[in-house]
Amino acid sequence: MPTLPELTPEHHNALGQPTGATMVNWHPRARPTRTTMAGQYCTLVPLEPEQHAEALYTAFGADADGKNWTYLPVGPFNELADFRHWLMSACCTTDPLFSAIIDNRTTQAVGMAALMRIEPTVGVLEVGHIHFSPLLQRTPLATEAMFLMMQRAFDELGYRRYEWKCDNYNEPSKRAAQRLGFQFEGIFRQALVYKNRSRDTAWFSVIDRDWPALKTAFQGWLAPANFDAKGHQKNTLQSYRQ
Fold it and tell me: Which domains does the chain have, with CATH numbers?
């Protein structure tokens, strides 16, 4: 795990202007790579269109009315061929860096997410393109997938800031961000145009100083002892943060 950079107390310069904390021993971080992130409930693997397109298309098809596509920049796709073509054009890059989320019980892909807007020089990246099929939503796998990606950012790579952004009308996404420990930072008005709509973007973040306590909360919530025989949680993730 990379060592966190030291921050000096906030101070003023010779002109009396406040300049904030100084970074000590900071250096640019490595870029995330296309490697596996393994958990007890799910595994994140580099998304390969030829390998994962059909399973993802089937899983997303369980969302019969297509509401999960509303706040994504693309879709819904009516044909597997169209979905595969999009995956091949968009998901084989290093930024965004897509992962398929695999259910460890079935070994099938049930969702996807990406690390994106990766800025190694300042140690900032974003999690985005999150699409959880109904097979993944409201399960321990969904939370673990987000934990594994956050763990990669902070523990493996030593990034300072991890962002979550969404359409301000996307209330489920905003609730998910806050449940996962992201702090709301504000609204960027008219930030994007997509699907012929103007988007106000809600910004959330976790920073490296938040991570140790948040990591402990994730580990407590994900422990098998926190679930009953039917897989229902005994205690909420928020309760572990408190």
Answer: 30-225+232-241 (3.40.630.30)
